[in-house]
Automatic annotation (TrEMBL):
It comes from the Eukaryota. This is Venom acid phosphatase Acph-1. One of its GO terms (molecular function) is acid phosphatase activity. It catalyses: a phosphate monoester + H2O = an alcohol + phosphate.
Amino acid sequence: MFRYLVLFYFVGQLHHTQGNAINNDVVNDKQLLLAFVVNRHGERTPDADELSLSNEQEKLKELTSIEGLEGLTNLGKRTAFQIGKFIRQRYGSEGLKLLSNIYLQDEISLRSTNKERTKMTAEVAMAGLYPPEAAQQWDDGLGKVWQPVPYTAVPLAEDYLRYYSNCKKFKQLMEKAKKESIHNEFAEFSDLIPTLKTETGRNFTENPLLFQTINDLFRSQVALGLGVPQWAKPLLTRLSEASRLAYRLYYKTDEMKKIGGGVLLNDFISAANEIIAGKTVTKRFRLYSAHDFNIGALMDVTKVVNSEQILPEYGSLFAIELYKSKSNGEFTVMPVYLPKAGESEAQYLHFTGCENNNYCNYKHFADISKKYLLPEKEFYRICNIKTEL
């Protein structure tokens, strides 16, 4: 019973920004021209850092012997499938008509980080997006239920989506942020430090990101049926609060935000400008199978209102969409957030300066976010990454 109570607790910690209904007349006047969508992978097993904090390491290893560390669980696969179904519902022929019911290579690009859990999430999501129709059924068995869809993944050391692990400049900024925060943001949690050191053997004052690590560990343990250790039960609420602060350290400064989300923003603006100029642009639906840090970074550089209150869960999704008005030709951008594929409805957020309208004038959107633009080649220069990409 406690397992389900803790699951309810963790779900309750997620911030659900109020979604706004959009009038049908407005929807019918808008034509969707471009969508950049970033999803977080499905549920996974603990990683090595999380495992090191657990006093149930042997049990966790037994429970995850099939998937291994950081592996996508069966629950995570089901969540990934729901991501694909949501994309089909929203962007397919029954929705905003940006995608066909069959896979067409000129309509969609799919990129994943080079992690098993994100690559598997991408593959399963595509199974939910493209159940094969007659024209693409390639076999009387598997070919009737599965359509292969290609994705791109680059080495982790060269991937701008993995900025927090491969960018030396970002790591330097993070070290500074951690040192400053332990005496500021995390001061209110100083009374937890002795208990955490006793139970985990780690000094959280040396690395406040451990608050997020241990929170993620408990989520994985609960999902695997192991539950939360007795000593941690009275501390769950405060540990969750500290975890949110740790997550926000990745976006503490404008420079950190730019490194984290600037390349995606730059690619969106570049594609949007070409479309507005009347140029031919293919692959107008672009999906990135990635991580919570990618969703958070893109939210921050696009100036989503109250983005700091959103903590992306497994199976969450954030999209920026470009529209053209059929009546007056105005180009607008709208931010969309799905808290949990298969369990929640899409929420229409707001950009700064457009608090009273989900659809934000494109020029205004480009102006408020331009300081975060980061061409991919410039990312490699700033981060001192040598690449031939």
